[in-house]
Design goal:
Blueprint lengths: L2 E5 L5 H10 L4 H7 L3 E2 H9 L1 H13 L1 E6 L3 E4 L3 E2 L1 H8 L8 H16 L6 E5 L5 H11 L3 E4 L7 H14 L5 E3 L18
Parallel strand pairs: 1-3, 1-6, 6-7
Antiparallel strand pairs: 2-5, 3-4, 7-8
Helix pairs in contact: 1-5, 3-4, 4-8, 6-7
């Protein structure tokens, strides 16, 4: 059984992308301008803990695809360049925005066709709104899962939890998005890492 993880894009991607692109001294900017840099690494830089946790968890327990605004679903290790990042930064992450929704649905549909019957699809991103959930539910239906413990957690809490699970080799419990409690009370803070 294969678990495919769909990682939501880096938060504040537009603003941080602009900062990254304006930096003249960043080694990552130099790589983006020349041969390119892995999408997962770029989004980790822009989102820090949260995306780093998602990427570490997904690569530990399955295959990682990143929801890339305007580009659909891309493998986390695909190389992107400056122009790619600039274009992604202009696409609003909104299910009603065709430039976001259509490539996402196109790639999700292609991915869905290639899944075995026992493969799982897990969204590692916010399920509180429909910006990712709506288009992905249209394609995957009841096969679309998410970590049950995400309900009520903020970005940093989810990122910290995912990093801890990746380090210990402990996968989370997944539930179907359809019909699940997607909002909940804020859980207790995670214990500090030593």
């Amino acid at each position: 059984m294969l678990t495919v993880f769909l990682l939501s894009p880096a938060s504040c991607a537009g603003t941080r992308a602009q900062l990254l692109l304006k930096s003249q001294t960043s080694p990552l900017t130099a790589r983006l301008a020349n041969g390119g840099a892995p999408l997962g690494e770029v989004f980790t830089f822009m989102s820090s803990l949260y995306f780093r946790g998602k990427l570490a968890y997904a690569t530990r327990f399955g295959r990682a695809y990143v929801i890339a605004p305007g580009r659909g679903l891309l493998p986390a290790d695909v190389l992107i360049r400056v122009d790619d990042l600039r274009k992604m930064a202009t696409v609003p992450v909104d299910e009603a925005e065709p430039a976001f929704r259509e490539p996402l649905v196109r790639d999700a549909t292609a991915l869905h066709r290639g899944l075995a019957t026992d493969d799982r699809v897990v969204l590692l991103g916010s399920v509180a709104t429909d910006k990712y959930v709506g288009p992905l539910l249209d394609v995957f239906g009841d096969r679309l899962l998410f970590p049950a413990t995400f309900a009520g957690r903020g970005d940093m809490s989810r990122g910290g939890l995912l990093l801890r699970c990746a380090r210990t080799g402990t996968p989370l419990e997944y539930v179907a998005v359809r019909g699940a409690v997607r909002h909940g009370p804020k859980p207790p803070k995670l214990p500090r890492l030593r």
